[in-house]
Amino acid sequence: MKFLLFIILNSLVLSNLWAAPAKDLDKQWAAFSQTSTLSVSHDKWQAILDRYLTTTPDEQTFFSYSKVTSEDHKLLKSYVSDLTTIAPEQLTRIQQKAYWINLYNAKTVDLILDNYPTKSITKLGQGFFSFGPWDDKVLTINDKKITLNDIEHRILRPIYNDARIHYAVNCASYSCPNLAAHAYTAENTEQLLDKGAEQYINHPRGVLVTDEGLKLSTIYSWYQVDFGGNEQDLIKHLSLYAKPKLKEALSMVTGKIEYVYNWDLNEIK
């Protein structure tokens, strides 16, 4: 009986872990500067991307975790440390957008390297029922310990209300939108967000029209509220970034929508 109860509880916990967190603003991170003379350097992160990120002909990016030297891992940790010593409220809103995206992505790569080799980021995390590291307190900013989920769901999503955020933050998985080849800055953020949306939507792991209907990344199910709230609005969003052939196919889609996701590491082997 105890074993059966354990199995039931385990199943319930795992199903909850798969549910996407709600968008819920943490007001302590809402402050920003109207103008800022503070310069944030993302050069260290760009150096890591230049050395270890590969873009395939079909515009999917992969990271060579196995090739990262100990010196470059230290450089990455130094970059993360640099960002955590900055008080975000001293930055403008657009500076903050780039700051949080880069910090999320750099820390994710750092966590993978700390635990490498691993088949999937879902194998990381503290606690018996952990499904990934997203709820672990892995960063300290303004003397406050925060999680990757805090950055995505309690800062980026509620502050910016921009569905393209989902094409920017990278979960180190095959089915995830690309880890961008360029560090986000106040100057290039809007361009990179559009590029991330276009690359993902026009790749089969994001959107695939089949004879049976439409196969989409589960991101569009988890966060449907951010893409309009219903499947009709979701199709409109996809069509905004779809290339002509895909856009035409989307306009004629009938049948069910199937959602799939591959959590294997986004790794060049």
TrEMBL record:
Q: Which residues cross the membrane?
A: none
Name all DUF547 domain ranges.
89-201
Q: Which first-to-last residue range defines the signal peptide?
A: 1-19
Q: Which InterPro entries match?
A: DUF547 (IPR006869), Grx-like_ET (IPR051548)
- Does the entry feature the keyword Signal, yes or no? yes
Q: Is the Signal keyword given for this protein?
A: yes
Keywords noted in UniProt: Signal
> Which PANTHER family does the record cross-reference, listed alphabetically?
GLUTAREDOXIN, GLUTAREDOXIN-LIKE PROTEIN NRDH
What name goes with this protein? DUF547 domain-containing protein
